[in-house]
Design a protein that fits this description.
By secondary structure, this protein is mainly beta. It is built from no helices and eleven strands. It is 0% helix and 49% strand.
Length: 122
């Protein structure tokens, strides 16, 4: 298995940018596809972005397409989420996850980080 730790969440004004990081333990990081999910209070966990093992395939929820970019650095065991043009609706706890296939279904991911809070003020 892999342990994941997110960081980078903070308060930011609407229209601003933020870069989240997810650091993974172990030497098998490149064996996993990675995803970012988010969860707002009272809401279900929502798929945000996913990335293939090599980093060449990326996938985004319609709500963030064109604003967010996922990438990974396998040499650093880290996956990132660059968030631009942030909206108040983006406010949530953001989680990174590791799995075997890139999908929007949370159940397909076997390892999860603890989450990092992103708050976008209007």
């Amino acid at each position: 298995q892999v342990q994941l730790v997110e960081s980078g969440g903070r308060l930011v004004q609407a229209g601003g940018s933020l870069r989240l990081s997810c650091a993974a333990s172990g030497r098998t990081f490149s064996s996993y596809v990675m995803g970012w999910f988010r969860q707002a209070p009272g809401k279900e966990r929502e798929f945000v972005a996913g990335i293939s093992r090599s980093g060449n395939g990326t996938y985004y929820a319609d709500s963030v397409k064109g604003r967010f970019t996922i990438n990974r650095d396998n040499a650093k065991n880290t996956v990132y989420l660059q968030m631009n043009s942030l909206k108040p609706e983006d406010t949530a706890v953001y989680y990174c996850a590791a799995g075997a296939i890139v999908t929007s279904r949370p159940s397909a991911y076997h390892s999860w980080g603890q989450g990092t809070q992103v708050t976008v003020s209007s």
